[in-house]
Design a protein that fits this description.
- By secondary structure, the chain is mostly helical.
- The protein contains 7 helices and 2 strands; from the N terminus they run H-H-H-H-H-E-E-H-H.
- Helices cover 48% and strands 6% of the residues.
- Strands 1-2 form a two-stranded antiparallel ribbon.
- The longest helix is centred in the first third of the chain and has 11 residues.
């Protein structure tokens, strides 16, 4: 007797299937009519073909789980910082950095975060270390 091999059922979306707008649905359910424009753009970026919450999170400097919590309106961290990262990474908002010139807002945030960690830094990092603490774009300026 010949054994018949059974083809396993394919799990997950079928090739070529359109991705459902799960992130946008979750955001709308959690935020309601008060959903900010930046949250809508974050959700749309996550729902774009070939994208995911993890990929978008990496693009703006956060984890996928943080993106998920923001979309579900359960994030306990600094929403203003996430908003700034989304505006810089997804909405092309720039600032005039005294050290680097015109840069995306999320790049400014990353430079500020690394400014205190001087270690074996290059000359540009040293400039950020000196200038970022007193920069007008730094919310904690003068501390």
């Amino acid at each position: 007797m010949t054994a018949m091999t059974k083809t396993p059922k394919r799990r997950g979306p079928q090739p070529g299937a359109r991705k459902k707008a799960v992130s946008a649905r979750n955001a709308l359910a959690a935020w309601g009519a008060d959903m900010a424009e930046w949250v809508r753009i974050l959700a749309a970026a996550c729902d774009a073909p070939g994208s995911s919450q993890a990929r978008v999170g990496k693009r703006i400097g956060y984890t996928g789980s943080t993106v998920n919590q923001v979309l579900k309106n359960t994030y306990k961290g600094d929403l203003n910082a996430v908003e700034a990262a989304v505006k810089g990474g997804l909405m092309d908002v720039t600032i005039d950095c005294p050290v680097a010139g015109d840069i995306p807002l999320n790049v400014c945030i990353g430079n500020r975060r690394r400014a205190g960690k001087i270690g074996t830094a290059g000359p540009l990092r040293v400039k950020f270390h000196i200038n970022c603490p007193n920069c007008p774009h730094n919310r904690g300026a003068g501390r």
